[in-house]
Specification:
Shape: flat
Strand content: over 45%
Order of helices and strands: HEEEEEEHHEEEHEEEEH
Largest sheet: 11 strands, antiparallel
Number of helices: 5
Amino acid sequence: MSRKYMILVWITSCCCIAFCQSTSKQDELQGVKVSQVAPILDTLGKLVRYDSDTVEIYYSGNIRLYYLSYQFDSVDLITKESYLSEKRYHYFIYNIDSAYGHDFDVHRSLTKKRLRVDSLLHWQWTPSVNVYPIITVNKTHLLNAFSNLDSGTTHEWYAFSNGDTTAHGTVFFGYSKKLNDLPYSLSREMDSIKQMKLYKVRYTQDPRHIKEAGITVDKVNSEYNLERITAIRSEIIQYFQNYRRGK
């Protein structure tokens, strides 16, 4: 084999390896966990409880999979007594180029259901999360900021300085450079401004009187969290493999 031919083979092999790595990186299966904590108030503005929800979203190429939950309550039609109350889980997978996806919910059907993507995700809070208006709609001023070069994180605390009753309190933002590759965003605007991924938001609303309603609303907290899923369950991998095979 001539030296010229060997060099050509080597270059071709390197190009092939680079292409395979690029393709593999594009189709690499990634997962993010997005959680929300929100206050539940009664009609008098008193805090009843905090409600929390967590959604897992998985990405691979153009394919998306949502691991979702919903509250199921069964009530006796005669006595109106609740005899079953539980959180149920299901999977929804689709291609971003398609208007339809497959829903797998063993509580409702033993086979997959073909559903419209916009119809199913319309009832989910995760696709519409954007916390940017917190600091654009309200007047705020920076209280404190701290950056850690070793961990690649930045933390900022702001106070609201509105002159009315819309928002009073503080808000915390946590950013991390190590999460920049995650496709999900709590705010693409804030990610772009900081060149870091916004991964935590904690909003504390001080007690406030709403004159128009004649009520005083309790102090409440709201929270959003974003984290990487490092250990992807085998059933998630199987869903992606079956979807690609048309199963």
